[in-house]
Amino acid sequence: MTRKIYQGYAYQEPDNLYTYPNSSVLINRFNLTDADKAHEKEYQLTADRVIELAQNPINVRTVKDILKIHGYLFQDMYDWAGQYRKVNISKQGNAFMAMQAFGSAETYMNSLLEDFHENAHSREEVIKGLAKILDNENYFHPFREGNGRTQREVIRSLALDKGYKARVNIVEDDIYNLYMDGTVHGDVQMLEKLFDKILEEID
């Protein structure tokens, strides 16, 4: 299967709240202003944190735990790790949740997480619950950067709580396409196909 190509993000940030002046590079703890060097440093640091979370996952019960996961993954790179974004963002012309609505989004996400923990017991129920949570978390898109990596760790942790492995390996083209088609287009059925493909019961 051929990997699909998706357009990048378009950020509405006229005051350079997160970036260096006249640059798209995010302000970081190492003051790296070269895009390639900053990207490489971020990838290296977060990859190490992903490994640590694989050994000691953060249990996700509320949105506060999602913030904790983002904070853990990006703590070495950004001062704002684990904090809601303060700018509005869109992708391919489609806007994510406006930051002004984060209060309502948090309440709704908390209700989805509670319903998942209380009512998702069979494999089919877990698949449907994870798909709905991922779809809404993606539209929420609470962070300036790192939403995808945070989403994937949230899903892994939630599945683990139900006795399943759910590793969204975006290196594999078929998994990547299902994940991106589902999240970019808000296609819950596509996300259900993704989880049906990757969800494995822990021995």
Explain what you see.
By secondary structure, the protein is mainly α. It has a single domain, classed as Fic-like fold (Orthogonal Bundle), CATH 1.10.3290.10. The chain contains seven helices and five strands, in the order E-H-H-E-E-H-H-H-E-H-H-E. The strands form two sheets. A three-stranded antiparallel beta sheet has the order 1-2-3, with no helix packed on it. Helix 3 packs antiparallel against helix 4, helix 4 packs across helix 7 and helix 6 runs antiparallel to helix 7. The model has no long low-confidence stretch (mean pLDDT 93).
Entry summary:
Helices cover 53% and strands 7% of the residues.
Task: Sum up the structure in keywords.
three-stranded antiparallel β-sheet; two-stranded antiparallel sheet; 203 residues; Fic-like fold; mainly alpha
CATH topology: Fic-like fold
CATH architecture designation: Orthogonal Bundle
N-to-C SSE string, H for helix and E for strand:
EHHEEHHHEHHE
Our measurement of the CA-to-CA distance between the termini, rounded to an integer number of angstroms, reads 30 Å
Largest sheet entry: 3 strands, antiparallel
Number of helices: 7
The CATH homologous superfamily name equals Fido-like domain
* Overall pLDDT metric: 93
SS-based class: mainly alpha
Query: What is the CATH class designation?
Result: Mainly Alpha
Which spans have pLDDT < 50 for at least 5 consecutive residues? Answer: none
| Rg of Cα set | 17 Å
Helicity, as a percent range: 40-55%
Shape: globular
Number of E-type strands: 5
Strand order of the largest sheet: 1-2-3
**Percent of residues in beta strands?**
5-15%
Question: How many domains make up the 3D coordinates?
Answer: 1
